[in-house]
Structures are given as structure tokens and as C-alpha cells.
């Protein structure tokens, strides 16, 4: 019975994690395009600004609503660094590799490849956050 409750709790956390991700996706879109079209920054600078801001927002929201029990036991700065690392691994590194393979080698259109990547990157990012970034006890 306890295993069923643990699995249910993890599924609920995963859904909440996805909801935070959806909010951050919208914010990232707004920030990136606002920086690019309104402030006239370079597109990569706009992306970096959106990444830094939305990962921080994700860290705060996931800490309060998704991993709140784990968040009480963690070192704030160490966990924040780990969250940036996990999002960098999945959002920048892994996503770039997958996009290259899908688009250049397999000929999959970008708009489909980016959606396909979510199936891989979201669960990996959830696992990194749940079991690594938010699971660090204060020393």
C-alpha cells in the first residue's frame, strides 16, 4: 500500500512540475521576444536572459509547490546551482544533441523535433530535480 502512495505522490509531483514548466515556457517566450523586439537585444542574449530568469522562477515555484517537503531540508544556494545545472543539461545540452540528430540526420522538421524532445527532457529534468537538486540536506 505504501508503494502505491509513493507512486501516486510522484505522479502528482510530476504533474505539478509540468504545470510549473508550462508557466515558465510562456514566461520564457514573453521575455525572449520582449528582449528581442522591444529592447532590441541579440537573439542569443535574449534567450540567455529568459533562461536565467525562468530557471530561477522554476526553482522558487518548484520549491514551494512541487518539492516543498524536500525544499525544507536543502541548502538554498547549492540547490539553486544544481537546478541551473540540471536545466542546462536537459534544456541546452541534451536538447541540442537531439535536435541535431532529429533534424540533420533524420530530416524531422524543427517544430516536430522540439515537441518530441519534451518526451525525453521533461522526465529527465524531473528526475534530476527530484532526486538531486532538491534532495540535498543542509550541512
Description:
The chain is mainly alpha-helical and 139 residues long. The chain has one domain. Helix content is 86%, strand content 0%. It has 5 helices and no strands. Helix 1 runs antiparallel to helix 2, helix 2 crosses helix 4 and helix 4 packs antiparallel against helix 5. The longest helix is centred in the N-terminal third of the chain and has 37 residues. The protein is globular, with a radius of gyration of 16 Å. The protein starts with a helix and ends in a 6-residue tail after the last helix.
Number of domains: 1
Count of separate DSSP helical elements: 5
Helix content: over 70%
Order of helices and strands: HHHHH
**Total strand count, please?**
0
How would you summarize the topology of this molecule?
Blueprint lengths: L1 H37 L4 H24 L1 H4 L4 H30 L4 H24 L6
In short:
With 139 residues, this protein is mainly α. It has helices spanning 2-38, 43-66, 68-71, 76-105, 110-133. Helix 1 packs antiparallel against helix 2, helix 2 packs across helix 4 (76-105) and helix 4 packs antiparallel against helix 5.
Question: Which key terms come to mind for this protein?
Answer:
139 residues; mainly alpha; 5 helices
Amino acid at each position: 500500500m505504501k508503494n502505491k502512495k509513493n507512486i501516486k505522490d510522484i505522479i502528482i509531483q510530476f504533474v505539478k512540475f509540468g504545470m510549473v514548466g508550462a508557466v515558465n515556457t510562456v514566461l520564457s517566450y514573453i521575455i525572449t521576444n520582449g528582449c528581442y523586439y522591444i529592447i532590441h537585444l541579440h537573439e542569443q542574449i535574449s534567450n540567455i536572459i529568459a533562461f536565467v530568469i525562468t530557471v530561477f522562477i522554476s526553482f522558487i515555484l518548484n520549491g514551494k509547490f512541487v518539492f516543498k517537503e524536500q525544499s525544507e531540508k536543502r541548502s538554498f544556494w547549492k540547490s539553486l546551482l544544481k537546478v541551473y545545472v540540471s536545466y542546462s543539461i536537459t534544456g541546452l545540452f541534451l536538447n541540442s544533441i537531439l535536435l541535431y540528430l532529429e533534424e540533420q540526420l533524420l530530416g524531422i522538421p524543427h517544430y516536430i523535433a522540439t515537441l518530441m524532445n519534451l518526451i525525453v527532457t521533461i522526465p529527465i529534468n524531473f528526475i534530476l530535480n527530484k532526486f538531486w537538486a532538491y534532495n540535498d540536506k543542509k550541512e
